[in-house]
Each structure stands twice: as C-alpha cells, then as structure tokens.
Amino acid sequence: MKKVLTTLLILSFVSTSAMAWPFGKKEAKPKSTPIPVAVAKPTPKPTIAGGREIVKEIGTELKAAKAENAKLKTSLDKALEQVKVAETKTFEVQKSADALKEWGIIQQAEAQKFMKKYNDAVKRYHRLKMIAALIAAAVGVLLGLQFMALVPPPYNLGVPIGGAALFAALVWFFL
What we know:
Layout: H1 2-16, H2 48-146, H3 158-174
Helix pairs in contact: 2-3
C-alpha cells in the first residue's frame, strides 16, 4: 500500500510540474529592438580664436605640470633624506645586533664553564657523601658490636648490621 501511495504522490507531482505538460506554456518570440547608432559630428574648421584657446589651455596645463614637477622634486628630496636616515639607523641596529650576538656567545661559553664546574662539584659531593656514609656505617658496626652482648643470641648479629644501616642512612639523608 505504501508503494502505491508513494508512486501516486510522485506521479501527481511530476504531472503538475511545468516540464511534464508541454501544452501549458508557449514560448515567447524575441522582439527586435532598435539599436541607437552614434553619428559622428563634423569637426569645425580651425580658426585663429580656436588656436589661441588651445594655446592658452596648453599654457595652463604646462604651468600646472611645472608646479606638480616642483612638488614632486621636493617630495623626492624628502624621501631621499628619509632613506639616508633609515640607512644610518639600519646600520646602528645591525651593529647593536652584532654586539648582542657576541655577548650571547660569551654568556653561553661562561654558562658552559659554570655547568662543567657545577657537575664536577656535584660528583665530588656525592663521592664525599658516600665516604661519610661508609665511615658512619663502620662506626655503627663498632657501636653495634659494643651493644651485641645485651641482645639474646639469635638476634645479636642484627645489632651491628642494624647500627651500620641506621648510621649510614642518617648520614646519607642529612647530608
């Protein structure tokens, strides 16, 4: 039923559209419209008064061109001065950048020296810390041997080991 209904719906849509019914609209024939044609006016014959007017117009145009040329020369001079100032400033900036680059290279070299010294000092510190922990462990063993008599026999071997571990840990963590 759904197929029949959708088919009827599509068929009714297609039959009502303008393309389905060829007799519904008639094509309009294009109408011709007249195109206006420009007619060239005859040029007047040159006269002395017309020549004088042309000479006056050319003279005023020449004066305006000279004034514009003077303005352009002054603006060109100003632009050249600005270019010279910009070149000197660029040279100064380049000089400053080079000095800053050299300073940065020097700072990097000093930082590398400092880091090398720091790493060496850290290695020495850990080496001395290890020696101090070993000495503290030896003291812990000796002290544990002194107190070994106070502990019952199966546990008395743990006293020197515990003392060594305790003293070494204390020195290691507090240094």
